[in-house]
Amino acid sequence: MKKGISIWAFSDHTPEACFSLAKECGYDGVEVALGETGAIRYDSTREEIEAVRRLGESYGLEFYGLVCYDCWKYSLASSIPENRRRAEEMIAKQLEVASWLGCDTILVLPGLLECDGEVVPYDVAYDRGLDALRRLAPLAEQYGVYIGVENVWNKLLLSPLEMRDFIDRVGSPWVVAYFDVGNVIRDGYAEHWIDILGTRIKKVHFKDYSRADGTINGFTDILQGDVNYPAVMAALDRIGYDDWVTAEVSAADGDIPALLQRNAAAIDTLLNK
């Protein structure tokens, strides 16, 4: 497995600052983000994006996953047609930009139950997300980039059985799982999700979570919460996973270098490096 860091771990998102620190702390690659501002924007030209890729390569880093800053703003499940269209356009742009960066996977949300000031009925949100991903799957194949559906606190796809069946119902090998081990700990067990999702898992987020907290503030550094990492690593081994593991963490005290170093060391421990 290779060790990556999420761009969201950095307070300074300028590429030079992020890439230099990531390399200094021993990461092999960076999970980057597309947004309205910054170095990787919706309106960036291919030449500008490829310049970012070359900059990363100059630090010996790889790009493998592309997330989107606006994934919580525009939902595939929205009852507003314009917002659903915007969400699909966003994913289409992610696919294109990912292909320019050399990323083989993008992260998407299947839909939000709470969006645009209303609560979308569960079955409606499910069907809207499913239909959208079926439309987008051929584009993913065209670009050679996987659409990775993440398990998040969106009140949708609440069990590994449901996520497994949702991905299978899309019916494309280009729609996979972008699995976050920490996001399931409040209500379940990451190792169960891994065994059930199996080879559908294309990318993995590492972080930790304290069940005693029970809120959004319960997320913590890797190996500092209730994720059973020995069981997680055994489950990843059972499904033959040998791709990227990304530290998706943040520093409450703002000490980003210490954050990166702590979690790089934790991942090294788990990977027996």
Give a description of the structure.
With 273 residues, the chain is of the alpha/beta class. It has a single domain, classed as Alpha-Beta Barrel (TIM Barrel). Helix content is 40%, strand content 19%. It contains eight helices and twelve strands. The strands form three sheets. Strands 1-2-3-4-7-8-9-12 form an eight-stranded parallel barrel, surrounded by seven helices. A two-stranded antiparallel sheet has the order 5-6. β7, α5 and β8 form a beta-alpha-beta unit. The longest helix has 22 residues. The model has no long low-confidence stretch (mean pLDDT 96).
Mean pLDDT: 96
Number of helices: 8
CATH homology group:
Divalent-metal-dependent TIM barrel enzymes
Low-confidence stretches: none
Shape call: globular
User: What is the number of domains?
Assistant: 1
- Give the tally of β-strands: 12
Structural class category: alpha/beta
Identify the CATH class. Alpha Beta
Binned strand content: 15-25%
Which value, in Å, is the CA radius of gyration?
18 Å
Q: What's a quick, concise take on this entry?
A:
The protein contains eight helices and twelve strands. The protein is α/β, with parallel strands linked by helices. The protein has a single domain (about 1-270), classed as Divalent-metal-dependent TIM barrel enzymes (TIM Barrel, Alpha-Beta Barrel), CATH 3.20.20.150.
